[in-house]
C-alpha cells in the first residue's frame, strides 16, 4: 500500500510538470471583424490530434457604444484546411458554439471564420467581436463527461488524464522531429543549390574569359600586331 501511494505521489508530481508544459496547448483571444471580413489563423498541430474551438460573438451596439451579446440570427462559418490544403471542416454554426476536428497530417492548419453576412446586414454598426479559444490535444477532452460515461473514479480519471498527456507529449515530440527533418532537408537543398549556382557562375566566367582571349588573339593576328 505504501508503494502504491508513493507511485501516486510521483505521478502527481509529473502531472504538474505536464500541465506546465501544455499550457501553451490552450490559446484564447478575441478579434474584431467587419460584415464581409474573413479571419484566418495558423495553428501547428501534430498528426492524429483532436482540436476543439469554442467561440462567442458580440455585436456592437451604437446606442450603448459597447459590444452586446449577438443575435441568434448571426451565424459563423468555420473552415479548416490541413497543410495539404484539404478541407477538414466546412460548416455553418450559430452565434455561439464550438467546433471539433482531428488532424491527419502534421503541420500548419488554417482555421478561417467569417460571418453570415446576409443576416448581419439587418443590424446597424457593422462591427463584430469574436472570442475564440482553441483547445489542442488532451485539453480538448471533456473529462467530466468521460467520467460520467465510463463511470470512472477520481483516481481513474486522473490516470486517464495523465495517459492522455503522455500520449500528447509523444505526438509533440514526433512532430518536433518531423519539423527538424523538414528543416534539415530544406537547409541541405538550399546549400546544394547555392553550391551548384556558384559552380555555374565559375564555369560561365571561365568560358567567357576563354572566349575573350581567343577573340583578342584573333583580333591582334588580323591587325598583324603579334
How would you describe what is shown here?
Strand 3 and strand 4 form a beta hairpin. The chain has 226 residues and is α+β, with helices and mostly antiparallel strands. The radius of gyration is 30 Å and the shape is elongated. Strands 1, 3, 4, 7 and 9 form a five-stranded antiparallel beta sheet that branches. A four-stranded antiparallel beta sheet has the order 2-8-5-6, with helices on one face. The chain has helices at residues 2-21, 117-120, 143-150, 154-222, and strands at 26-33, 38-45, 50-61, 66-69, 76-81, 87-93, 96-102, 107-115, 128-136. The chain is 45% helix and 31% strand.
* Helical residue percent band: 40-55%
Number of extended strands? 9
Low-pLDDT stretches are 1-24
Helix-strand category: alpha+beta
User: What is the 3D shape?
Assistant: elongated
Q: Number of helical segments?
A: 4
* Order of secondary-structure elements: HEEEEEEEEHEHH
User: Averaged pLDDT, please?
Assistant: 78
Report strand %. Answer: 25-35%
End-to-end distance: 105 Å
What gyration radius follows from the Cα positions, in whole Å? 30 Å
What's the main sheet like? 5 strands, antiparallel
